[in-house]
Specification:
5-stranded mixed β-sheet, Nucleotidyltransferase, domain 5, alpha/beta
Amino acid sequence: MSTADRIGVDAGGTLIKAAVHREEKWIYRSFPLSQIDACAEWLHLISSERSIHLTGGKAGKLKERLRGRTSVIFPEFAVSAEGARQLIAYERDVVPDAFLLTNVGTGTSLNYVHSGKIDWMGGSGVGGGTIIGLSGLLTGIYDFDTLIQYASRGRRTMIDLTVARIYEGEEPPIAGDLTASNFGAVSKDSSSSSPEDQIASVIGLVAETVTSLSILAAQRAGVNTVIFAGSTFSGNELLTEIVKRYCAEWGITAMIPRHGAYCGAIGAACS
């Protein structure tokens, strides 16, 4: 096995994401937080000499398991911004001078990145943890990949109340297919909905919440670009579609890098 040039690990509340730079390319791997010991063993194996750069809320826990190895913890917001810049530069060549970084992990954080500075703009407890937890309560399914598969077959029309249904028979003041109330069409007299529909509606709730917050934060910061990152976007086409559509409604450019789940890990590796 060739020696790693750089190793960065983002230990979050649900997943541990690792980015290893070797032979001029990045190698990505993730572990559930419950497998933190397996992650530590893997890190020992891939390089016995290189310093491991850590970030994230569970970085301290992982550092405890890396005894005998040189490891350093870096501030999460700063390294995530650097990782986002690198991913956008790789995919699009041009990186905006200033942007909002919305990181949708277990929860959601909003950061205004500009002139070498990072200003925290707030956040929300609504995020990937909401998708897993709320969908699990509704359907009994807690596996993220399975939830995404179910959502791809779901329809929100029986669960979410749209603007057009509020203004039935009249011209609505905004686009009629926008959501007026998440889960607002559900009542005791409603027809039963499928697990697919329920999960799709949960993802819709999360997508619209984090996007609305991002749009307001971007407007406040005076930028028109939002980079959305975080493992919640991995394979999640419905989330991606809604985020891009809602941003476009307000003239905001949404950038969602392919490996955005690893922003923190890449930024830590390069710090």
